[in-house]
């Protein structure tokens, strides 16, 4: 089986590709190696993947329509895992066009490639950010999500709508995954765990937004990967009981499904920092700040559908996950 993983040099794409290669799969990894964060980190991830004989790297931007069309036509992928996107809530306030280009135009090229080349299953990354102003906890895929609070979130909601339209029109099996605050080794430098660890080790203050009262459903990378790999072979089917008079946002009469992948255990940011301090053996200098535009006070994943579909629940504790991240960080940066 030939599998396309987009964003293969990114955090999640790297780990997913490693897992698939370990299982003996043929993986084509696509990435444009943009400079949203340290390109050297992306290249180091890529260097590890390129050691595997079953891995092929393609440097290509999702927005390159002709390049994407040629890649799909010549490679004849059986399955596609789309993890490439312009990430980051706060950056969407500074550079909104990047989100339209990558997350909308680029995703359209993925959908077209799958449509015209009979891809067996498309899995794509959405985000817990789509829940926006929702306050009913835990967040469920069966809840309406029409009130995003950032362009990033809006672009991910748009991905879900676009994917559903293609699934409905062309019978494409498509699965959307809403990830909840992913962390772990080889993580993104713009995420809290990376930023906090770097600052604490350097003796610099950390920026703690909303006075540290925010809650996040931190999810360890290995749990994210396990969910993706299990769902890859779990093709969605049409829900014959779906009712247009009382539409369920989480299912469809098309072969389309949405799943949350989260730890189902929201943690206060101050508690998160406390665990990090204990693992590092150092106290953080905290700069308490108000809530940032585009942020939400809490996230909390309802994973009943994931459990029902593939019998899996994320289970890595923060103590375990943060410990593994710190081990990697100290080894990678020699500190």
Please characterize this protein's 3D structure.
With 335 residues, the chain is an alpha/beta fold. It has eleven helices and 13 strands. The longest helix has 21 residues, at 96-116. The termini are far apart.
Q: What ranges have pLDDT less than 50 throughout 5 or more consecutive residues?
A: none
Helix content: 40-55%
The largest pleated sheet is described as: 7 strands, parallel
Give the N-terminus to C-terminus distance in angstroms.
Answer: 41 Å
Structural class: alpha/beta
| Cα Rg | 19 Å
Shape assignment:
globular
Element layout with pairings:
Blueprint lengths: L1 E5 L4 H12 L3 E6 L7 H11 L5 E5 L5 H11 L3 E4 L8 H4 L1 H21 L4 E7 L23 H20 L3 E6 L2 E2 L8 H11 L3 E4 L5 E2 L2 E2 H12 L23 E6 L5 E2 H12 L5 E4 L14 H7 L7 H16 L2
Parallel strand pairs: 1-2, 1-4, 2-3, 4-5, 5-6, 6-11, 7-10, 8-13
Antiparallel strand pairs: 9-12
Helix pairs in contact: 1-2, 1-8, 3-5, 5-6, 7-9, 9-11
Short description:
The chain is of the alpha/beta class.
Question: What labels describe this entry?
Answer:
single chain, 11 helices, globular, 335 residues, alpha/beta, 7-stranded parallel β-sheet
């Amino acid at each position: 089986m030939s599998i396309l993983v987009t964003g293969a040099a990114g955090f999640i794409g790297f780990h997913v590709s490693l897992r698939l290669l370990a299982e003996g799969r043929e993986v084509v990894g696509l990435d444009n190696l943009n400079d949203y964060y340290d390109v050297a980190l992306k290249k180091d991830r890529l260097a590890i993947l390129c050691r595997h004989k079953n891995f092929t790297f393609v440097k290509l931007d999702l927005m390159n329509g002709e390049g994407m069309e040629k890649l799909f036509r010549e490679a004849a992928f059986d399955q596609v895992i789309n993890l490439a996107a312009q990430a980051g809530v706060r950056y969407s306030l500074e550079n909104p066009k990047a989100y339209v280009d990558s997350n909308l135009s680029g995703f359209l090229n993925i959908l077209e490639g799958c449509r015209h080349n009979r891809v067996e299953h498309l899995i794509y990354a959405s985000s817990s950010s789509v829940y926006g102003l929702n306050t009913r906890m835990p967040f469920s895929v069966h809840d309406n999500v029409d009130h995003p609070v950032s362009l990033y979130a809006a672009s991910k909601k748009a991905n879900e709508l676009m994917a559903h339209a293609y699934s409905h029109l062309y019978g494409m099996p498509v699965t959307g995954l809403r990830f909840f605050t992913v962390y772990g080794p080889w993580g993104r430098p713009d995420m809290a765990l990376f930023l906090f660890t770097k600052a604490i080790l350097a003796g610099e203050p950390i920026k703690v937004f909303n006075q540290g009262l925010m809650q996040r459903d931190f999810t360890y990378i290995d749990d994210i990967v396990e969910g993706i790999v299990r769902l890859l072979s779990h093709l969605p089917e049409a829900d014959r009981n779906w009712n247009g008079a009382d539409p369920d946002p989480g299912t469809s009469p098309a072969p389309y499904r949405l799943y949350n992948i989260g730890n189902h255990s929201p943690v206060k940011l101050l508690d998160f920092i406390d665990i990090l301090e204990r693992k590092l053996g150092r106290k953080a200098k905290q700069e308490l700040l108000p809530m940032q535009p585009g942020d939400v006070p809490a996230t909390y994943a309802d994973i009943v559908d994931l459990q029902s579909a593939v019998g899996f629940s994320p289970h890595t504790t923060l103590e375990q996950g943060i410990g593994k991240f710190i081990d990697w960080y100290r080894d990678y940066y020699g500190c």
